[in-house]
Give the backbone structure.
Amino acid sequence: MQTELLTASAEGVARAGALLRRGEVVGIPTETVYGLAADALNPSAVMRIFEAKGRPSDNPLIVHIAARAQLDALVTEVPAAAERLASLWWPGPLTMIFKKAACVPSVTSGGLSTVAVRLPAHPTARAVIEAAGCPLAAPSANRSGSPSPTTAAHVTADMDGRVAAILDGGASGVGVESTVVDMTREVPRLLRPGGITVEMLREAVGEVEVDPAVTAMLEQGVVAASPGMKYKHYAPRANVTLVRSAAASYAAFVNAHAGEGVAAMCFDGEEAALTVPYRTYGARDDAAAQARRVFDVLRGWDDDPTVTQVYAACPSSDGLGLAVYNRLLRAAEFEVIVLDD
Ligand code: TXA
Ligand code: MG
């Protein structure tokens, strides 16, 4: 398949809409990461997303809408707390899980009785949903298991020849995927941390639980609340190990392990002490910069086949840092070294 490269112009958006109405898959920008979109209510279109990604079919997709009014047809009930969160952060990087209406095909919801819905803030994403005339199912536009794409070039690297078109809307502003909150429970439960932090959620609706899978490996036999959390994810070819420590002991540890194939993923301004190749991913106290850069830096290791072991400085898990920590933990397959200072 020849993949068309579209711009975020009126023509590009119209072309994306026409392809989507025909049941094709199109890579689209959002403020979090790029998505791989198709008509959420057309089972054969949604199947094409799973094929393009190489995604396990039990992993449900997020349904994207362009206006709050589109939600009611997709779900059986909107709890009061969800209404409050929508009023605060839609449009924005917040996905909520509801009991699904019959019109949502089971292929879209991974066979679950619930559906995840998000109203993105990116104007081009909303324009494409409007041009398509239907809600769009859209997982992150990476091959299954790879770091999520934050630029059209990342999407092209993974999806050229596998999708009908890719629409270039510039680099994603948030850089990590949306916050996912299950609103079907008595107490809302955070399934995936993102741009809307757990601190913000609690301030808005009171008690919010954090699913144990956010920061810990699922034990064998435990059913994942969010199926996406059970898979190895975001990992480059090289082995990634997180190192939790202050700057000086991090540098001492990495330098002591210097050798063939060893590299560092460190905070801005902390590279001077290192004797190994490095990439920086934002300042230690700047979680927003870390979120914007983490996936691009993880992807970058694949451009250098000589790198086999990456020691990544562990971010703080406060605020937006929890989202960065959650993604790096999965890239590292939960391998964390804790140093005493
Ligand atoms: O920021 C984002 O959310 C991006 C952009 C494109 O909008 N999309 C995205 O989709 O990250 P995806 O498919 O890569 O991640 C969706 C996550 C997965 O972990 C999936 O298991 C979970 O949400 N999920 C989807 N529907 C669910 C449901 N009904 N119940 C529990 N988890 C669900
Ligand atoms: Mg994904």
